[in-house]
């Protein structure tokens, strides 16, 4: 029996780079010898507590990111399209309700992480592809339904995500990300002799592959990694 | 006769990510069908005029960048090692004299860009590998000597770099970078039908290869790209 390396993937569905990283990671875990642990966190809390500022506040950076996301999305084959008002969607409406919902889905799911993966993807699709809301219970339910949850499962999740236990779980995951060095999302983390190794963003797969002893070229050349595995 | 794509590489020797990008670009231009035009610019001016803030001011980001640079440098085989006091070296001492010097080397060099490439590399080696000064004329001369310039050439360059013409040339290159969208360095830029396509940082080679029709895997697999071509 070998002990696979566990890669923790901290993400928030409000973050478009998290979506790109998520899809690529979901593909790579088929060809790398790793376990991926999905860690829904709250980007707003990470930005505030780390003292970081959203990069889009610098005009040239905002223009660049818009173009960068478009090119990357096309390259990695993710149907990303910015919301009509990214600032309203990201900063005014935000993702607290959505990430509590994802946390509750994960809490309920005992066997694997298929539901949390699919619900996360459907929420990204709403905000970062279809210009739809992710704050209202009806929006969250619709995403969960598309992700394959039954009506009774959705009802349970909606009740669960208002409990203190789920609020605390999201806070704790966010704090854990901060404690190992987060200043934004997405972030990958695995431990080597107890010490956290972190990788920020969607552009460190090649380096991460090198660091964990996987061949980045082999992984990249596998045609399966260019497509959703669902 | 084919018309090769010209990739403008805007950089400042005060920037460690510029060094990594520079070395990788210097390797890739051997295997990609492109012309690389070295464009020495002034990072301080770009940060100020774009309204951007140095990323290292956020504590978790500073710690991450230190680790990220160390891992990337090892991976791409560049002997990078931070100065004892990065803030003093980058922000108090800065790179205005150094980038005027590089600009003057480029102005003098009529045949190719071997001198400007080598002088830039030696300046990076001083600040980002050997914890040495890059602000004093003696420091600049030493770098140029290591890069293979003769004493008379160095004397000429030192005189040239105090002229208004060279000061203006550095300002103009910096302004050109801003005009096409810079908010930091390094930045790659090429034109498609007159429009500027830009790529920021040292981590967009795979995407850039895809966009210019080069095969990122073929380039990466060429063993030559892992070593200095000098």
TrEMBL record, chains A, B:
Catalyzed reactions: RX + glutathione = an S-substituted glutathione + a halide anion + H(+)
Keywords, sorted A to Z: Transferase
InterPro entries given in the database record: DSBA-like_thioredoxin_dom, GST_Kappa/NadH, GSTK, HCCAis_GSTk
Pfam families (alphabetical): DSBA (PF01323)
Keyword presence, Transferase: yes
Protein name stated in the entry: Glutathione S-transferase kappa
Species for this entry: Solea senegalensis
Enzyme category, top tier: transferase
Residues covered by the DSBA-like thioredoxin domain: 6-210
Molecular-function GO terms, alphabetical: glutathione peroxidase activity; glutathione transferase activity
Record family assignment: Belongs to the GST superfamily. Kappa family.
An individual GO BP term: glutathione metabolic process
Enzyme Commission number(s) of this protein: 2.5.1.18
GO cellular component terms attached to this protein's record: mitochondrion; peroxisome
């Amino acid at each position: 029996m070998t002990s696979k390396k566990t890669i923790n993937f901290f993400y928030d569905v409000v973050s478009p780079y998290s979506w790109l990283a998520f899809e690529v990671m979901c593909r790579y875990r088929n060809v790398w010898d790793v376990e991926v642990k999905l860690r829904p966190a709250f980007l707003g809390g990470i930005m505030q507590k780390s003292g970081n500022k959203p990069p889009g506040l610098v005009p040239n950076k905002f223009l660049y990111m818009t173009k960068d996301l478009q090119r990357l999305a096309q390259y990695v084959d993710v149907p990303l399209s910015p919301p009509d008002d990214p600032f309203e969607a990201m900063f005014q409406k935000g993702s607290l309700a959505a990430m509590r919902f994802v946390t509750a889905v994960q809490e309920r799911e005992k066997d694997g992480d298929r539901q949390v993966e699919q619900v996360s993807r459907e929420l990204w699709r709403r905000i970062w592809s279809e210009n739809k809301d992710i704050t209202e219970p009806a929006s969250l339910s619709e995403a969960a339904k598309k992700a394959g949850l039954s009506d009774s499962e959705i009802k349970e999740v909606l009740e669960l995500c208002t409990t203190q236990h789920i609020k605390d779980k999201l806070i704790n995951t966010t704090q854990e990300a901060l404690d190992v060095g987060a200043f934004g999302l997405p972030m990958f983390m695995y431990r080597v002799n107890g010490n956290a190794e972190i990788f920020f963003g969607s552009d460190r797969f090649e380096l991460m592959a090198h660091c964990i002893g996987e061949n980045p070229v082999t992984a990249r050349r596998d045609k399966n990694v260019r497509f959703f595995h669902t």
